[in-house]
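Posted in: Structural Biology > Protein-Ligand Complexes

Title: Requesting predicted complex, flavin mononucleotide in pocket

I'd be grateful if someone could produce the 3D structure tokens for the following input. Sequence and ligand are given below.
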Amino acid sequence: MAIDEDVKSAQMEDGILEVIHQRWSPRSFSDQPVTSAVLTKVFTAAGWAASSYNEQPWRFLVGRRGDTTYEKILDALVEFNQVWAKTAPVLILSTSKTVFSANGYPNPLCLHDTGAASANMSLQAAALGLQTHGMGGVDREKARKNFAIPEDFEVGAAWALGYPGDPDALPMIYREMEKAPRTRKPLREFVFTEWERPAEG
Ligand SMILES: Cc1cc2nc3c(=O)[nH]c(=O)nc-3n(C[C@H](O)[C@H](O)[C@H](O)COP(=O)(O)O)c2cc1C
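-- Reply #1 --
Done. Output follows.
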């Protein structure tokens, strides 16, 4: 049975962008293929993220099920993620350039900005009816080796991308998580005027 989107959609105040309501991280993906046109839109959205000095430090490796890029990303995931991520039609690995291209100085915000690009990617995907699922559970050394990633790039996160599938197709341990409502910290726990003093209103 398909997922109840009302359970997964974020409960939040009116006036928040619709696509923020819609985005969530499934572990079950349908077989519906993701077209090249959709991938182009998703990565175009990623590329329009803001970045420090407009460095655009992100580089994304993208694989489709059946190709070697996909196999190399899947191979680098921890087992907990491999079990479900192999149902996704597309796997992505984000990497980030750790130095500024103009002068070779360290870019301490490279992963920050790659995260921003990844968030754009996720929201654009949700707007098109797809979903993404980020994965920090990656063997970074294996990923680096599988793709011969140069030393001045850091491995970021892996991402599964596709149309959400049947939660009951997942092994039992993932099913409950797939159907559970999503929760967030209240604003007072992360918006301050002084350290740990919640901002009013
Ligand atoms: C950078 C990043 C790393 C994550 N790593 C994993 C992971 O290794 N395995 C996993 O199952 N989920 C992973 N997640 C998914 C989070 O658990 C999920 O985003 C969070 O529970 C909030 O749920 P939501 O995305 O549906 O709002 C990751 C998410 C992000 C953004």
